[in-house]
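Revision sheet: structure tokens.
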Amino acid sequence: MANSSVRRVLEPVSDTGRNGLDYRELVSVSLDSLLANRLRTFLTMLGIIIGVASVVSLMTLGNGASEAITGQFSALGTNVLTIFNSRPNRGPGQSGNIAPLTMSDYKAIAQIRLPIIGPVPQFSSNATLAAPAADKSATVLGTTADYAKVQNITMTSGSFFTDANVQGASQVVVLGSSLKNYLFGSGEAVGETVRINSLACRVIGVMESKGGGGFGSVDDQALVPISLAHTRLFAARTSDGNLRVTTISLSVINADDIEFTQQRIQMTLRDLRKLKSDGSDDDFNIINQASFLSSLSTITTLLTTFLAAIAGISLLVGGIGIMNIMLVSVTERTKEIGLRRAVGAQSRDILLQFMIEAVVLSLLGGFIGVILGSILPIVLTVTGTFNAPVTVNSVIISLTVSLATGLFFGIWPARNAARLNPIQALRHE
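Predicted:
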């Protein structure tokens, strides 16, 4: 019976294992030790669980938000250039009025014959739109038929206005999706009449939702032929009789030609407006949507990384918890360690046993954290509230960091246990 009892104590050291070590039994002993103190084991893992859950959820939500934002701007066209009034080089001592963009500027750009779609003049102003059942103050944008091509507009019903509508200043209007829902609800809008500043216009189309953009959301706007906006809806003439435009947009067919196209437009406008060729007194600015999108992607990526780093602090706290509990465990099991060393266990055997316990704590906590951290993104995605699918990368990163945390904070207590003097350990009370 005595020999049987000794054999059970000595099972981690076995001739059947490699170098005399039975790894399966060593893992079993480590698990038994953790299960013997279930509450303490759970509380130790809690820091890892919270940390991993935070990292997974924040990374997933951050990536989802980043994709949503960049997707909205990509939908507007990544090769789009937009010209508007501004003094990009204005210094503290500079002053003077900024000459508005006009149809003359638009025509000058159109005559260059660049490899572009457009240009498209746009004149916007606020107006009251009245439908039979509702009325709303909204932005009315006057433009040309090419606007749909430049801005990648698609229609859910009806059609966009044509060049003939623009030439004839037809009293027609195309509604954004949100504006249509406000004015007509779930009913049909195409064919109905909307009064814009008391001018009756026939709804010929409803645009598909596109979300926000650099100059407001088209979903909340009403689009009319620019000739109608200039002549019937708004006071659009400058003091010298030119017709004002708010912005001029165009889409470059080949992305490699964006820089050349931008420079060519700058030269044309400077010549037309009699500005210095070095651009020092430019009263206009050109936004490159591709550069803007790239900057936006960089910002959203940094924000996501920052959020994940903040969540990672919880993992650090969880790792410290593992180290503290393992140090307490070493103290409590000093006599057990001394007995194992006395019957032939090597320092590496003791080291490995405590490292296994630390890894089990961190990995088990990591798996639970991944499950909990995935619940919110999955619920938001399934319900259609927010598209934030859990990615394999976020799971792998979280589990890897969790494992690294267990190894890093578990190695010191394990080394302390492995370095104990067998004789002193057996005398420990």
